[in-house]
């Protein structure tokens, strides 16, 4: 069981690296293809937008397809698209490969979670899910900086070749080692979207948007900022991304402790305030290696303190189909990341790199406003539910009479 779940984690590591490594190699791609950096940045926008719109639709449409076949097809698509990106270094081809590899990721990632859960007995299900998803976390910590290092040493084409090899390894592991897997109950697209009719759920979901939007306004072009403002080379940039990933692990652990100890609301208020200040200061403090490292360390910690407590708040609102509400939150994350990458490209085109930090910081303060709004709606909903429970039901009244 654990070895099979480890194979799923390898696939997650490959797809997580595939999803985020482009932000670290934008300068190399732009230089070789002789195109503006803001245009190359839209490779991340296309990937995120395709994943966000494709994941819920594909989950509903592919409900009857065998889980093993779905995993294999998703990985095969990622392998083929990364090999194509390696063989044909053309911007138009890169856009197509990013779109299709995003579809592969949208097929694989949620399926891998459900398969990992089905492999494990109930008392070990949490650990099985954690191991399966560890690949995505490790991609941010190790995969992205390793991809940047490969790009600086042997060219960005080899970064895509590296991702293709990892995905191919996971493909072979699943093909050889995995048995036939029973399909979970199918939930249609209409049932998934029905949750959005509840105002408190909708606003709480929207709370994710400005956090992620502000993050990707800066993160998508972080390599360009470190190159032009901090004056780092490829190795130095990869070290900064490694530091960011390690800080994210610390922040993720702190988020769990803080949410349990002081509550999700206080954790999110602290994180939003800190992120707003950090991003506003980033273009001015990141002029030296020490300043950039300090800000990236703090940014990585507080950024990772937003998603876990936000998921905690969402799960507190619905116990019916928790997997669906979390998948909708994932779609919001990817839609917002696409918007952040696109907005960052526009800011660079019409202003300068300095504007990225200010806009990213303002988005965090906007998230704080939406957070208080959603909290107000949650309190009203809880009071209404409490009042409903306290009212005597007609049956009990008639018995007493």
TrEMBL record:
It is found in: Cell membrane. Residues 4-378 form the Major facilitator superfamily (MFS) profile domain. Keywords: Cell membrane, Membrane, Transmembrane, Transmembrane helix. The keyword Transport does not apply. Pfam families: MFS_1. Its main location: membrane. The chain crosses the membrane at residues 43-63, 70-96, 102-121, 128-150, 156-178, 199-222, 234-255, 291-307, 355-374. The keyword Cell membrane applies. InterPro entries: MFS, MFS_dom, MFS_Efflux_Transporters, MFS_trans_sf. It comes from the Bacteria. PANTHER family: PURINE EFFLUX PUMP PBUE. This is MFS transporter. It comes from Ktedonobacter robiniae. The lineage of its organism: Bacteria, Bacillati, Chloroflexota, Ktedonobacteria, Ktedonobacterales. The gene is araJ.
